């Protein structure tokens, strides 16, 4: 049986762990609210943007002159996987789920004889993929210095991706991130961004627009922005998911610490009692022997 | 007078949503004014000043690019970067010009064989500088070297 002093130290250490996890949970809750607000604020832009793009893509998409970002390069041999994860851990299965999805995807593509290239955003994803897929990595984007993701960050990533696309480095790009459902569930998602896919509501009113300049010029201008927009909304979803995941992970940790403290306290009290009883027995039997 | 529903959104936030009687848009091919019952139009923007006239007066925004969707009842402007004019200080403006200049340098550097891209970047920069003149800010770097 561990002695009393050891038990006491353990209880103290678990207590301070609980304090830390509790604090982290509250910080995550505050950050989550901010992240959700940011995601909310970007929604009108994204929705409108996609609606316009869907209309444009539908009218131009079929022609031979459609931009490559929309129609593809005509091959799907080389795939770029953009794996977006958090910069920090301690957020439950958040990073693991995203990298797992990316790994499965990569394995499937390799099985089909395709070439896979991986671009990681966020330190945790890079670390997780380093062992099995390190040789496929073509780059890493570090956002650890960024406190709050802005559109500028998305533009930087998009610029990098587009430069690679223009350089003919890949044919298809897919982003991996976690879609925020609610605090307890975040869905790892794969979304193809190049060639771009836009879904159009079949029953949406089709307004015939006048385009200025022409449809194709507008499309060529907007498609690169579409990449940035898609990346931006993925970054925001990811930020919200990360905080949500961290919040529920820390909530669990706090609860576990509480249970552990209860158990240890019982054990501590029992052993203390045992020591007292022992001492009493010794005194009594000593007195009787006289 | 009939009003149009005017929305100005950037990826980061919704800047304005008002019933406007008139919206002046810095479109790529020249300024245009949208009022109620405008022909449905989609146009791209150049860096410039967007003016919204509504019952409460007139608001001005500096936009860096993006596009506008106009139809009979509404005008939606989706700008990559948009700021109320009052928030565009010399410092902010300098940074915007700097960004445009960097984009141009980058284009000159990497895409020499595509004059269109370089021209587009150069135009972006000159538009940006013109914005400064328009709102009374001086672009410190007025040379176009």
What proportion of the residues of chain A is helical, as a percent range?
Answer: 55-70%
- The CATH architecture of the largest domain in chain A is 3-Layer(aba) Sandwich
Range of helix content of chain B = 25-40%
DSSP helical segment count of chain B: 2
Helix and strand element order of chain A: HHEHEHEHEEEH
CA gyration radius of chain B, whole angstroms: 16 Å
Report on this structure:
- By secondary structure, chain A is an alpha/beta fold.
- Chain A has 2 domains: 4-21 and 250-289, Orthogonal Bundle (Helix Hairpins), CATH 1.10.287.80; 32-249, Pyruvate Kinase, Chain: A, domain 1.
- Helix content of chain A is 62%, strand content 14%.
- Chain A has helices at 4-60, 68-71, 94-111, 123-133, 151-166, 215-289, and strands at residues 78-84, 115-121, 137-141, 172-180, 186-194, 210-212.
- Chain A has a 5-stranded mixed beta sheet, with helices on both faces.
- In chain A, β2 (115-121), α4 and β3 form a beta-alpha-beta unit.
- In chain A, α1 (4-60) runs antiparallel to α6 (215-289), α3 packs parallel to α4 and α5 (151-166) packs across α6 (215-289).
- The longest helix of chain A has 75 residues, at 215-289.
- The model of chain A has no long low-confidence stretch (mean pLDDT 88).
- Chain B has 145 residues and is α+β, with helices and mostly antiparallel strands.
- Chain B folds into 2 domains: 4-85, F0F1 ATP synthase delta/epsilon subunit, N-terminal (ATP Synthase, domain 1); 88-135.
- Chain B is 29% helix and 40% strand.
- Chain B contains 2 helices and 9 strands.
- In chain B, β7 and β8 (74-79) form a beta hairpin.
- In chain B, α1 (90-110) packs antiparallel against α2 (115-135).
- Chain B is globular, with a radius of gyration of 16 Å.
- The mean pLDDT of chain B is 83.
- Classes of the chains: A alpha/beta (290), B alpha+beta (145).
- The interface between A and B is medium-sized, with 29 and 25 residues.
- β6 of chain A pairs parallel with β4 of chain B, so a sheet runs across the interface.
